Amino acid sequence: MKVGRVIGNVVSTIKHDFFEGERLLMVQLVDNGEDYDGYLICTDVVGAGSDETVLILDEGSSARTIYGIESAPIRSVIVGIIDDIHELDT
Amino acid sequence: MKVGRVIGNVVSTIKHDFFEGERLLMVQLVDNGEDYDGYLICTDVVGAGSDETVLILDEGSSARTIYGIESAPIRSVIVGIIDDIHELDT
Amino acid sequence: MKVGRVIGNVVSTIKHDFFEGERLLMVQLVDNGEDYDGYLICTDVVGAGSDETVLILDEGSSARTIYGIESAPIRSVIVGIIDDIHELDT
Amino acid sequence: MKVGRVIGNVVSTIKHDFFEGERLLMVQLVDNGEDYDGYLICTDVVGAGSDETVLILDEGSSARTIYGIESAPIRSVIVGIIDDIHELDT
Amino acid sequence: MKVGRVIGNVVSTIKHDFFEGERLLMVQLVDNGEDYDGYLICTDVVGAGSDETVLILDEGSSARTIYGIESAPIRSVIVGIIDDIHELDT
Q1: Domain residues of chain B, as ranges?
Q2: Contact between chains at B13 and C85 (C-beta distance less than 8 A)
Q3: Is C66 part of the contact surface with chain B (CB cutoff 8 Å)?
Q4: For D2-81, which CATH superfamily applies?
Q5: What pTM was estimated for this model as a whole?
Q6: Separation of CA E68 from chain center
Q7: pLDDT in tens, C8-40
Q8: Closest CA–CA distance from residue A85 to any residue of chain D (Å)
Q9: How far is B15 from chain A (nearest CA, A)?
């Protein structure tokens, strides 16, 4: 799984039926607290807000499982809001 | 999912039967409103036109689900036309 | 899906049974008509020849579907020969 | 599969039910003994500790198999602790 | 599929049961006869030796198919030993 930061949302009128009523969030990928090159458009099952750091699951069959809809055409889902990332003692 | 821009279409006479009658679009990947290195050849279920910004689903089992054909040899599908991407207040 | 160019073939004596009798083609990935960093070893279901531009499907379950063999250990298959890529009017 | 090094853990209060009680470890990807650009957030089934070098499986259906939960929304799992990597005689 | 070169093996005492008795090989990815940035930890079904050039299948469900174990937590498998790569006449 990956860490990201919610930076925007996507407005789409014409889209596959599955996405009706789903928020489509633009999520910047983050490594070591810094943005890096890349993003994912995700749906959200935990109510993530603007600028929040989130846990992203980017895998189709997992995503479908979350929605309980076997035919959901979906791949990237926000599955957690990250409060903190602790560096372990080494 | 990813954001792309439709920049061309692929002409292929000899191809797997599934692709007969399907448009094969060349879609430039886009990040932060700018093109970047990469593209995908996609089929299209929303009627995307030239130069339109689109939502791309790049995952095999999802793609098959969309077509309702379990044996469809397909991975990348345009599933939405993007009107706008709003930056969230932070 | 991706675009590639057939540049070579792989000779392998010791291999998984599935690959017996299958051509294993070295396919250079292509973007915007130019080679770029990367290749895939593909099997071929459309009879692609040397130096031809091809449509590549790189996904396991799709690949198995094409062969109709549920246990085929395969991921990358040439599924079309590309005659031309037209730039759309913008 | 990939090699990584456990460098931190993720604290998340609001998350998908599956992750309740699961440690979410930040794992730096490693190549040739050196860190490189990239990380994965993994769950752990072998009890990996801080700074340990680990074997990572990053694939959804495998990950679900490990947990024996068909609906587990998971992709990246630590499946081994690496004691050493031997260079083979060449 | 990809081409690699066997450069080492991984020693792991604590690991998922599936890997008991399986060799875990460190395989350097190869392009155009030269090493490049990247490796995979693979199991092996063809008896690949040190420094041999191999055909790698990096896909979970294919890998499970090879082992005939539906619950095998595995993704990367060596499926062939490559004798030669011929450049095609162009």
Answers
A1: 2-81
A2: no
A3: yes
A4: EutN/Ccml (2.40.50.220)
A5: 0.91
A6: 17
A7: 999 999 999 999 999 999 999 998 777 776 899
A8: 4
A9: 25
